[in-house]
Amino acid sequence: EKKTVSELSGLLDAVDHRTTQPFGLLHGGVSVALAETIGSLAGFLSIEEGQVALGLDINANHLRPVKKGFVTAKATPIALNQNTHVWQIDIRDEQDKLCCVSRLTLSIKHL
Predict the structure, then answer these.
(1) Is 32 in contact with 6 (CB distance < 8 Å)?
(2) Residues designated as active site
(3) Element (H, E) at 111
(4) 13-19: long-range contacts (C-beta < 8 A, 24 or more apart)?
(5) Phi/psi at 34 (nearest 5 deg)?
(6) What is the rounded distance in angstroms from the CA atom of residue 88 to the CA atom of residue 104?
(7) What is the dihedral of CA 91, 81, 1, 103, to 10 degrees?
(8) Which of the residues 31, 64, 93, 105 could staple to 57 if both were Cys, CB 3.0 to 4.6 A apart?
């Protein structure tokens, strides 16, 4: 049975010494890992049983620094095709300001 996720959100509530780079700002790699995690989960929730969603490509534009607090990531589908999914992941800070935009491409394969 085919399922479709219209949106999936997640929270990273630890912008602190564990997730920042030496200048005290949220590490870009952490933002990308969060984006890929939320986007991949959304992809997985949108495929049929017996299929897998495998990452093909991810990119990110870091628009605003985050020094502390938390960020939320929201994945929305751009295209959900039989063999490929493309997801938009927006990451926002506590003030709901856009900090990072990411696009994730997934390959959909049958097991």
Answers:
(1) no
(2) 36
(3) none
(4) 13/70, 14/70, 15/66, 15/67, 15/68, 15/69, 15/70, 15/71, 16/68
(5) -65, -45
(6) 7
(7) -10
(8) 105
**In angstroms, rounded to a whole number, what is the distance separating the alpha carbons of residues 12 and 35?**
11
Which amino acid is located at 42 in the chain?
A: A
d(CA 19, CA 31): 9
pTM greater than 0.90: yes
Beta-bridge partner residues of 106: 55, 85
Distance CA 81, CA 108 (A): 9
Position 2 confidence tier, pLDDT thresholds 50, 70, 90: low
State the Cα–Cα distance between residues 13 and 101, nearest whole angstrom. Answer: 18
